[in-house]
Design goal:
By secondary structure, this protein is an alpha/beta fold. The protein has 10 helices and 11 strands. The strands form 3 sheets. It has a 6-stranded parallel sheet with strand order 2-1-3-4-5-9, sandwiched between helices. The longest helix has 21 residues. The chain is globular. It starts with 8 loop residues before the first strand and ends in a 5-residue tail after the last helix. 48% of the residues are buried.
C-alpha cells in the first residue's frame, strides 16, 4: 500500500506519452492528484514554459519523463536534436523545481547512457567507464548529464532528486510509427503487415547477434512510483526485468506470435547498435524492494493484441 503520494499534487512531464500515461495511472491509483500536460501547452525546451508549468500546477512531487525518443534510425538522423532537447528539458526542469521548492523530483534516465562495452549485466557503478554506443550517444549523454546535475544539486542545495535508469520499454500504447519506433513495436507492425500481404520475405536490420533487455511498461511505471515512495538516495538505480534476449530470438518470437511464416532476411549493412544490453537489477530490490513481474512472452502477447485491436488509431 503506497502512502507517501496519497493526496499529493504530482506533475508528470511527458505524462500524456507512452510511459507517462502508465505512470499517471499508477499515481492516480495511489491517490495522488496528477497533472499531465501536453507539449502543445508547455514546450519544456523553453525555460519560460518550465516556470509557467510549475506555477500553474504547484506540484509537491515531479516525475520528469518528457523526452525526445526514437529508435536507431531516428537517433542517427537527428543526433543534435536528441542531445539539445533532452539536455535542455532536464536541466531547466530540475533548476526550476529547485527554485520553486518542489519537494522531490524523480528523473527517468536511459540505458543508452551506459558505455558501449560495459560488462554485462550493466551495474550502476560502471556508468562512467567508457563512451556510449555511437548511434545513440547524444541522447544517452544528454540524459546522463541529469545524473550529474541531480547529484550536484544534492551536494550544494540538499535537494531531493532521484535518477533512475529504465531499460528499453515496450507494451500497449507504444509508438508504432516505423520511422521513429523502437525495435519491438517496429517488429510487431512489420511482421503483422508482412503476414497480411503474404510476403515471402521480411527484412530486418543488422545480423541478429546483439542482445537486449526489455521491461514491460506497467512494470516500469510501478518501479518508478515505488522508487518515489521509498527511496531518497543519491545513487542511480536500474529498472529492468533481468531477462536478456538476442535480436535474432526476438525477431523469431515476434514472427511466430504474429503468424508471419516467410523468410527473415538480415540486412547486415545496417547498424546493430550496442552489442549487448542487460541490467544488474539488484540495487532496485535492495534499495526499495522492487522487481519486475510480467514475463517477457506474456508482455509481448499483450502488446501484439493491443496493436491488433487499436492499429487504426496508433501513430
Amino acid at each position: 500500500m503506497k502512502t507517501f503520494l496519497q493526496n499529493k499534487r504530482v506533475l508528470v512531464t511527458g505524462g500524456a506519452g507512452f510511459f507517462g500515461s502508465f505512470v499517471s495511472a499508477c499515481l492516480l491509483a495511489c491517490g495522488a492528484h496528477v497533472h499531465a500536460p501536453r507539449r502543445r501547452d508547455y514546450d519544456l525546451v523553453e525555460r519560460g514554459d518550465c516556470r509557467r508549468l510549475l506555477k500553474d500546477s504547484r506540484p509537491e512531487v515531479v516525475f520528469h519523463l518528457a523526452a525526445r525518443v526514437g529508435g536507431i534510425g531516428a537517433n542517427r538522423a537527428q543526433p543534435g536534436t536528441f542531445l539539445f532537447e533532452n539536455a535542455l528539458m532536464g536541466l531547466q526542469m530540475l533548476e526550476e523545481c529547485r527554485l520553486a521548492e518542489v519537494g522531490k523530483i524523480v528523473i527517468a534516465g536511459t540505458v543508452c547512457a551506459y558505455p558501449k562495452f560495459a560488462p554485462v549485466p550493466f551495474s550502476e557503478d560502471d556508468l562512467w567507464d567508457g563512451y556510449p554506443e555511437e548511434t545513440n550517444a547524444p541522447y544517452g549523454l544528454a540524459k546522463k548529464m541529469l545524473l550529474v546535475q541531480s547529484q550536484a544539486y544534492r551536494d550544494q542545495y540538499g535537494y531531493n532528486s532521484l535518477f533512475l535508469l529504465p531499460v528499453n520499454l515496450y507494451g500497449p500504447r507504444d509508438n508504432f510509427d516505423p520511422k521513429s519506433s523502437h525495435v519491438i513495436p517496429a517488429l510487431i507492425r512489420k511482421a503483422i503487415e508482412a503476414g497480411e500481404r503474404s510476403d515471402a520475405e521480411m527484412f530486418v536490420w543488422g545480423d541478429g547477434s546483439p542482445t537486449r533487455e526489455f521491461l514491460y511498461v506497467e512494470d516500469a511505471a510501478d518501479g518508478i512510483v515505488t522508487a518515489a515512495e521509498k527511496y531518497n538516495g543519491d545513487q542511480p538505480v536500474n529498472l529492468g526485468s533481468g531477462y536478456e534476449i538476442s535480436i535474432k530470438d526476438l525477431v523469431e518470437m515476434t514472427s511466430k506470435m504474429t503468424g508471419f511464416t516467410g523468410k527473415l532476411v538480415w540486412q547486415t549493412d545496417k547498424p546493430n547498435g550496442q552489442p549487448r544490453r542487460g541490467l544488474d537489477v539488484s540495487r532496485a530490490k535492495e534499495y526499495f524492494g522492487w522487481s519486475a513481474q510480467v514475463p517477457f512472452e506474456e508482455g509481448m502477447r499483450r502488446t501484439i493484441e493491443w496493436f491488433k485491436a487499436n492499429r487504426n488509431a496508433v501513430r
